[in-house]
Amino acid sequence: MKNILFILFLIPFLSGTAQNSVRGFNYQAVARDANGAARKNEPVIVRFSLLNGSANGTAHWVEQHNVNTDLFGAFSVVIGSETRQSGYSKFSLLSFTANNYWLKVETIDGPDTVLLSNEPMQSVPYAENGVAPGIVHIFGGPEANIPEGWLICDGRSLSRTAYPDLFEAIGTAWGSSCADSFNIPDMRGMFLRGVSGNSGNDPDTASTIRVASRPGGNSGNKVGSMQPDAFQKHKQYRNLSHVTEQVWWWGGNTNVGNHQYGNRCDYFEGLTIGDIHPEAVNGGGEEAHFSSETRPKNANVYYIIKSK
What we know:
This protein is mainly β.
């Protein structure tokens, strides 16, 4: 069995083209034997593990490379380019800014495993933008200028094999028409609301009210579900001695003078006759703005989702 000494270089960049980038980082080293001589033109099996927090931390990523040294004993690999042996399901799910990783390097020589190094990484190996697939952002420019790797949240159906990282992140929460596809959120013209969870802030989380946004998607108190518009039922109090023919009456018929006023909206519980708030219904304050929906003031933006 030969001991191998490494001179290690970490080259910080994203390998690949802008259109088809591979999130990973280059690792270059020279393999040497116990006497310090370079192992030239030899096959070497090297295993890399990214451990979270310490030399004995949980392995977030483990991969193995079969390399051949050159005539100087050097070799180069891209950590993150090989199929995982254990850890996170995708290398892109690792966050080098949120976690302090240790890089453990071992060689496999038949039945023997030789530990070469297990040291903390002193810097982030590449310029990580911190945006993982499935993150939704707001974009304030025209559709044509939406950055590469982002999609408008328009509810479209995507291939699970074409967008594996995005599917890994959001699954079928927003719908799925078949076993090979999934839907992204459709947020066009929508206001967003945080999942209520156990907070009780959303009183209508039942799956009969909060329904799936697309067939096969989530309903009830889960991400991806959707509520229809609604207006909270309530009581209004007016002194009918002050009303005129302009008053609107909710919740039942009544006679005011020689005029009968019928239901305007059965959703309200009804008016209660009394001396509270004696002003006329249409008096005071800012003039009402009527439309086909109830809404606050708003501005149009694009909701976009990180796809790759």
